[in-house]
Task: structure prediction
Amino acid sequence: MLCEICGEKEATHTCRLCGRRVCDEHYDPATGLCTICSQSLCEICGERLASAYCEICGRYVCYDCSIQVTPAVRVCKECFSKLGWRGVLEELKRRRSGVPRLLPIRLLAARIRRKHT
Ligand SMILES: [Zn+2]
Ligand SMILES: [Zn+2]
Ligand SMILES: [Zn+2]
Ligand SMILES: [Zn+2]
Result:
């Protein structure tokens, strides 16, 4: 049986997530996963496959590491615990509106500094 990723080498391992038979080169012994799965793992827990995209930080996260904030939007649990319900909703509204109404504090500070120098 040949590796299901490259189709060239003998498959010597089985991915514990997708069950693909893969060669040494396409198997990560540390995680027990094929290279395809190890690249699509949740960026928070690193254990499950990512199934959602955090609208705030942009990371790919699994179902357990994300929280549904609106029917169409999920955010990762780290952003959620950092910002809370209100913070997350405000952040999403700000992003949706395209041009941010308020400049990030860091940018404002840089502008003020530039004026004085
Ligand atoms: Zn291979
Ligand atoms: Zn796999
Ligand atoms: Zn996760
Ligand atoms: Zn996030």
